Structures are given as structure tokens and as C-alpha cells.
Amino acid sequence: MRSITWRLTVWYAAILVSILAICGLAAFWSMRYVLFSGAAQEAASAVTAVQKMAASQEGNGRGNYNHIDLDDPELINATGNNMLLVQITSSGGRVLNSSWALKNAALAPGYAGPPVLSRFQGEEVYLAGGRLSGGALVQVARPLTREEDFLKDLARVFMLLVLAGLLLALAGGWVITRAALRPVHSLTRTARQISTSDLRRRISLHGGRDELYVLGETFNQMLDRLERGFRSQQEFVAAASHDLRTPLTVIKSYADLLNRWGKNEPAVVDESVQAITRAAGLMERLVNDLLLLAHMDAGPPLKPAPLDLAELAAETVQEARAVAKDVSVEMNPPSPVPVEADEHYLRRAIWVLVDNAIKYNRPGGKVELVAGEEGGQAFLRVSDTGRGIGQGDLAHIFERFYRADQARGQGKGFGLGLALAKSIVEAHGGKITVQSEPGKGSSFTIMLPQQKNIVG
């Protein structure tokens, strides 16, 4: 019963059998009512017929009613039943006349009224009575043996139908449920066959677009995302390994140089120490960026607080001027732009954009920052006069370890900065966009909600 197929089959069978049982009971009691009502009507009609016979022959029998033939075919035809038990009694209860079917038995004396259910010699009957002239009573009993036999047969038929319906419901429910759940079984088989070395398998979708079709489609979409994520992870590991290999090679080479020649050569020692220090610094930057990306993926522990975006950008400009040699970094006179954000993370995102604008600018170029409000949102735009970004690279520049060929040749970064900036901005409920043309520079824009919708 742990199987959904069996549970659905049992529920289907139980509901169908319940419906059959309810319909059968309703039909049984409706038929019983009709049959018993007819029998009661026959008993009442027999009383009326005897009263008419007695009235038409009054005076011939001198009050003993023996002259009335209670087995007369006219009486039987009048009531339409040959199962009537009829007797006539005096006011004192003495039987004056009775039908042949009563033989030596007698009905319960004294009752004169509409048909009621009673018992006679162990059988259920409808008993009806009426008064005759002279105080005599006529009583008619209509046995219900025929109706009861019919109802017993009807009950057996209904029971057989319910049993047959149960068997058919179990068999049909099993077949229908198996067919309906075939996409689920296909999904299960596909899930079992998927491994990290084969993420290309998908569920074949057929038929109408019902709930199970949507389930299979959703599962395929999930597999697409998993495949993209797994490939991205592989590319991430490969790129990180590639970028770590260079400083590690430098450290190993200079360590060998020190081991062979550096003991008595101060110049070699100085050169080696400086090279190892630079390589260690590169590794430290890469590892810190990777750790920060890991924190962003896990959900950064943001501590949003009210701050001025323009003031934060102005501070970044002052820091950038200290490292920019032949590139000018300017900002228009800032007006307050209130936002609610984590200052540490947001400062890092702004620095990434400013640092890139400086590194990839032309000699004598310019970097300009503009902060303001637009459409109910705060924005910070960082523009440069560098060589720009090609259309083929624009769609990928926010991917991790992605670097345009020109930038990669200069070895100015690891391709993690823009990915970090994008993750930080999106964690604050904002977005980052870029506009660029080769030879005309680039413009990056950060859009942030104003003091609301901060993810933390």
C-alpha cells in the first residue's frame, strides 16, 4: 500500500463500490416501498369489495353473512390478488365467515381500520378492516411473501453487482492509474539513470498538457539548470586552477632558485622574495574573492543600514585617485542619495567598477561617477573613456572567470570582480547594467531600492 498506484486504485474502487452500494440501497428501498404500498392498497380494496358485496346481498342471509362467498373470483379479480385472507366476525369476535385459505385459523379479531403491517402464522401481512351492517367486521390480510421473496432476490443481485463492480474497479483502476502515472515512472527511471557524468537524459513528453506533463516538463527544466550549474562549476574549478597555477609556478621556481643560488647571492634573494611576495598576493586576492563569492552564494549576512550612496561613491573616488596614475577620476558635486544597504559589501561592489574603469582605460583617460535618483530608485553610474567592450563579450562579462581576450592578455585580473559586484547588488534587491561600444568606453549602472526590499 506504499505504492501510489495501489492507493489510487483502492480509493477508486472504494468510491465506485460506495456509489454502487448507495444506488443499490436506494433502488432496494424504493422498490420495497412501491411493492408494500401496492399490497396495502390491495388489502384496502378487498375490504371495500366485501363491503359492497355485503350491501348488495343484505336481507338474503339474515345477518349471518354465510351467503357471501369470500373465495368468489369476482372478489379476487377486483383486488387483482389470489393471496388474500378474508374473514367476517361478529361484534363479539365470533367468526361468521372466512375464506378457504384461512382454513381453521383466524385473524386478529376486532381491528377495523386502514392497512397496517402485522404478522400471521409467522408471515408478515398487511391487515385491513371495515365495518358491515349489524356491527359485523370484515378483515383482510394480504401476505407479503411474494414481495419479500422478490426483494431477497433483488438484494442478491445487487450484492453480486457490487462484488463485480469491486473486481472491475480494482482491475480497471490499476490499468488506468498505471497509464496515468507512466510519466512519473519515466521520471523515476530517468532520475536513477542520471549521474554527474551524464546529465543529458530527459523525460520524453507525450499527450496533452496535463499536470503530469507539466511535472515532467518541470523536471526537464530542473535537469537543464543542474547541467548548466554542473558545467559552470567545472569551468569554475578549471579557471580557478588555471589562475592559481601561475603564482604557484612562480613561487616554486623562485624557491628552487633560492635553494640553488640564493644562499650567497643577496640580489637573487631580493628578487626571489619580491616575486614570491607578488605571487602570494595574487593568490591571496584570488582566495579572498573565491571566499566572498562562496558567501554570496550561501546568502550573504547583510547588515543593512541607512547610508548616503553619493557620499560612499565620493569616498571611493578619493581612494581611486591615490592609485590612478595617468587616469583622472571625477565625480560631479554629489547630492544626498539615501539608500539602505550593507556599507562593506556595497563599497566593494563600487570599487570593482571604479577599479575596472581605471585598469581598462586608455592613458590620459577619464573615469566619471554620477549618483542620483530615477524612477523611485537610487542609481550610481560609473563611466570611462576606455576601449569599450565588444558585443560578443557583453553577454558574458558578469560570468565568473570570464575575461575578454584583450584583458586576459594583459593579466589584470581573475574575471571575478564583475561577478562579485553583480551578486552584491542583487543581494540588495537591485540590479547592475552595462552599456558599451568598442572605442567609445563603457558605462556601468547600479540601481538600488531606496531604503526598502533589502535581502539579508
UniProtKB/TrEMBL annotation:
<protein>
    <recommendedName>
        <fullName>histidine kinase</fullName>
        <ecNumber>2.7.13.3</ecNumber>
    </recommendedName>
</protein>
<dbReference type="InterPro" id="IPR003660">
    <property type="entry name" value="HAMP_dom"/>
</dbReference>
<feature type="transmembrane region" description="Helical">
    <location>
        <begin position="154"/>
        <end position="176"/>
    </location>
</feature>
<feature type="domain" description="Histidine kinase">
    <location>
        <begin position="239"/>
        <end position="452"/>
    </location>
</feature>
<dbReference type="InterPro" id="IPR004358">
    <property type="entry name" value="Sig_transdc_His_kin-like_C"/>
</dbReference>
<keyword id="KW-0808">Transferase</keyword>
<dbReference type="InterPro" id="IPR036890">
    <property type="entry name" value="HATPase_C_sf"/>
</dbReference>
<keyword id="KW-1133">Transmembrane helix</keyword>
<dbReference type="InterPro" id="IPR003661">
    <property type="entry name" value="HisK_dim/P_dom"/>
</dbReference>
<keyword id="KW-0472">Membrane</keyword>
<dbReference type="GO" id="GO:0005886">
    <property type="term" value="C:plasma membrane"/>
</dbReference>
<dbReference type="InterPro" id="IPR005467">
    <property type="entry name" value="His_kinase_dom"/>
</dbReference>
<keyword id="KW-0597">Phosphoprotein</keyword>
<dbReference type="InterPro" id="IPR003594">
    <property type="entry name" value="HATPase_dom"/>
</dbReference>
<feature type="transmembrane region" description="Helical">
    <location>
        <begin position="6"/>
        <end position="29"/>
    </location>
</feature>
<keyword id="KW-0812">Transmembrane</keyword>
<dbReference type="Pfam" id="PF00512">
    <property type="entry name" value="HisKA"/>
</dbReference>
<keyword id="KW-0418">Kinase</keyword>
<feature type="domain" description="HAMP">
    <location>
        <begin position="178"/>
        <end position="231"/>
    </location>
</feature>
<keyword id="KW-0902">Two-component regulatory system</keyword>
<dbReference type="Pfam" id="PF02518">
    <property type="entry name" value="HATPase_c"/>
</dbReference>
<dbReference type="GO" id="GO:0000155">
    <property type="term" value="F:phosphorelay sensor kinase activity"/>
</dbReference>
<dbReference type="Pfam" id="PF00672">
    <property type="entry name" value="HAMP"/>
</dbReference>
<dbReference type="InterPro" id="IPR036097">
    <property type="entry name" value="HisK_dim/P_sf"/>
</dbReference>
<dbReference type="InterPro" id="IPR050428">
    <property type="entry name" value="TCS_sensor_his_kinase"/>
</dbReference>
